[in-house]
Amino acid sequence: MRTLLFVMAGALALFQVLLGLAAQQLQRSGMFAQLASIIPSFVRELFGTALVTMMSFSGIMALGYYHVAIIAVLVALVITIGTEPAGEIEAGVADLILSRAVARTAVLARSIILLAVGPALVIGAMVGGTFLLGLWIAVPPSELLPLPSLIGSLAVNLWALLFCWGGVALAIGSVARRRSVAGSTTGAAATALMLADYLSRVWSPLKPIARFSPFRYYNPLDLVMGRPLSMTDVGVLLAAGAVGMAAAYVLFARRDI
Amino acid sequence: MGSAPDVPAIATRGLTKRFGRITAVKSLDLTVEQGLVFGFLGLNGAGKTTTIRLLLDLLRPSSGRAAILGHDCRTDGLAARALVGYLPGEIGLYRDMTGRQVLDFLSRLSRVPPGRPWQRDLLDRFELRDADLGRTLREYSTGMKRKLAIVQAFQADPSVLILDEPTEGLDPLMQEVFYALLRDVRKRGRTVFLSSHVLSEVERVCDQIAVLREGELALSASVSEVRHLAPRAVRVTFREPVTGPAGGFDRSIQVTSVAAQQWMLNVQGPLGPLMSLLDGLPVADLEVREPRLEDVVIGYYRGTP
């Protein structure tokens, strides 16, 4: 697990550095202005101002915090951490641990700490990659620097999203007999709810379902466009994560190992 | 250690475990006194591993209770498990950890410092060298994993050892090492509760046994008592042909085969009636095979004791 966290932190920090170089290249060649001008009006209407927002230096630098592939990888990370207890039961390791004077709550407490600290470490590395290396290498005109408050808001909101999914994964993993079942169930739920949230933005009948999607409470492009971080959104994600973790405590305490 | 000597090492009362419609353990009443090596026998699926897992609170009972040295396994489980060393039948270990890391990790969970002389002694007995302990478990053979698992069960010097098929995967020399270890821990007053399919091993190392059949206790007695339940096989060879006794054989004698110069008999209890019968007959040889545990236990397995 430690290796996975450090490799992921390093890779995403490096990704932020590469984004800085890409943004620098686009800025120097004047591509941002050209891209914005050639986008057809109907495309702009379809995707809204978000598309134009993305075609900016700040938008590119913030890409690592909202790109679908990055989000998927980070959600997969928390699913891996959250289903660790299920994996230990399946592998038989849990027998050696829980046959000792170790409370079941201690096993879950370990997972919860990892679910809080692990993503924080990775996101912290991304933030470090953004500011310490990405912008230092890119050295754009100062007025185009993404505000630290923007990156901070993205980081906090993203961490809260991952905390939520960690709680869900832990709850499902607490009752599953196989790690693969827990992981695939959580992954399928994440995929379905991500799609529900995305499609609900263009198809209103899905809006009632999208309310239950954690992704509904993570709107990175709104942050890039200058809107303040919604503490209500953060609160909803943290609360959902906490509910999942509380459910995990109850379920794990009662189950047969 | 530190428990009153009259407190049983293991006690179950009405212990029951159901999995849906299947009752794996039915109202089990079992008592294991301190300081004994106790054999827990039964066919595959009889409920032995389920019972062990109930003792360790890995499974929650449907009804009844179990206690280890007076500590309820469910409501006082931490105190109960602090006194236990467990060897599972199927070993699950972190494959990317070295043997040393596994032992140290499990030692810390048992709240004993790693690297104590007793651990060193165990490692020497089972010939686990420093070079072996420096390798990851991925590189271990089945036998080496088993030896490591035995060391982790014994290394905290627990008061009660619960061992599920302890010698499976061990070569004959290591089996002898294990039996010697059992003798040593028994001398030190520890209690061993082991489940095994190898009846000769159970007969050799156990003081008492219990037989589980379809989740129910079929037999619980000392090994010597059980052995005496079995008849002795007797082969009588005659110098010249003889006929069977006119009045038939005594009730304690069961005839396996009667030939002109050889009788194969099973004798329950003393040999006196047989010796009376043979008085005056031209006996050339008399061969008596002492009763074996398996002669009785197999009958209990079949439900025909």
Describe this structure in words.
The complex is a heterodimer of chains A (257) and B (305). Chain A is an all-alpha fold and 257 residues long. The model of chain A has no long low-confidence stretch (mean pLDDT 86). Chain A has one domain (2-254). Chain A has 14 helices and no strands. Chain A is globular. By secondary structure, chain B is of the alpha/beta class. Chain B folds into 2 domains: 10-227, Rossmann fold (3-Layer(aba) Sandwich), CATH 3.40.50; 230-302, Alpha-Beta Plaits (2-Layer Sandwich). Chain B has helices spanning 48-55, 77-81, 99-109, 117-125, 130-133, 142-154, 172-187, 199-205, 223-229, 272-278, 293-302; strands at 10-19, 22-32, 37-42, 63-68, 71-72, 84-87, 160-164, 191-195, 208-213, 216-222, 232-238, 253-258, 262-267, 283-289. In chain B, a hairpin with a 3-residue loop joins strand 12 and strand 13 (262-267). In chain B, helix 9 crosses helix 11 (293-302). Chain B is elongated. The two termini of chain B are 38 Å apart. The mean pLDDT of chain B is 91. The interface between A and B is medium-sized, with 17 and 24 residues.
Largest sheet: number of strands, sense, barrel closure of chain B: 6 strands, mixed
N/C terminus separation of chain B: 38 Å
| Spans where pLDDT lies below 50 across 5 or more residues of chain A | none
Summarize the largest interface: chains and residue counts: A-B, 17 and 24 residues
Question: What is the topology, as strand order, of the major beta sheet of chain B?
Answer: 6-7-8-3-9-10
Total domain count of chain A: 1
Distance between the first and last residues' Cα of chain A:
22 Å
Question: Which band does the percent of strand residues of chain B land in?
Answer: 25-35%
Number of strands of chain A: 0
The percent range for strand residues of chain A is under 5%
Give Rg of chain B in angstroms.
24 Å
Helix proportion range of chain A: over 70%
